[in-house]
Amino acid sequence: MLSYLVRRLLVAIPTLLGVTFIVFSIVRVLPGDPAQAMAGVHATQEYIERVRKELGLDLPVHIQFARFLGGLFQGDLGRSIRTGLPVAQEVWTRFVPTLELTSVSLFLTLLFGILVGIISATRPYSVFDHVSMFFSLVGLSMPVFWLGLMLMLLFSVRLGWLPAAGRGGLAHLILPSVTLAASSIALVARFTRSTLLEVLRQEYIVTARAKGARESRAVFIHALRNALIPIVTIVGLRFGALLSGAVLTETVFAWPGVGRLVVDSVSARDYPVIQGTVLMIAVCFVFINLVVDLLYGAINPRIRYE
User: Fold this and answer.
1) How far from each other are the two terminal CA atoms of the chain, in whole angstroms?
2) Fold held by 87-299
3) Is the pTM of the predicted complex or chain greater than 0.85?
């Protein structure tokens, strides 16, 4: 296990360096001038050039990248062009609310997605199965921003039950977390149903039932555990997607997370913050994939890490 972890971490290093290089290159071709944005609309050309020199944007691109990597290896992501604060501080301050929103959305995904999938698989082609799969299809088809606006219009504007925007108590979490989790719940429900339905048709499940095993034991002990590996895979991927896909949800509900930080940074051409944010999300993806791989061994002891 230890050697496997070391190999995975070593493989993650070139992956993250590749992500860093791609993001560094892409943000440099964005239209607009960050020095102009920082100096202001009415700034003179001399002042803009001085700002560009202070930011190091007058240097060749390869030297800028080398400087960024040098700071990265020392734990320094640079300073925000827009605010002047350390990028690590800005990203972490915004990452905590995003992680809070994503964690609640993941909990809803696991609770309702797997539960609906199990009930549909144990009662195939029933009324519940048809209704749940219909709403799952609807959940997959609805755009996140549209669903967020509709929920806000109904529960905030019309009924006045929940706050429309901002971050505060538990009530502020309900609408954005449901909006963010809707497509994931639908996907996990459909995936759980199809995977579990296939496992329930296997001969060893028929044998367990023939030996007198209760239906609940046959489903939750024998079938569900063998169906968990593909489910864990899709849930892990969805957790990463929730982190990166929170941009629209956070924008609609004015949630002060990484998504809004990216939108504001792109508008201001704040290169260091964009790079730091994407790098943080990439690290989360790598970590989540590693956790998912380790869970395989816990679910199925026959899996060996070599």
Assistant:
1) 8
2) MetI-like fold (1.10.3720)
3) no
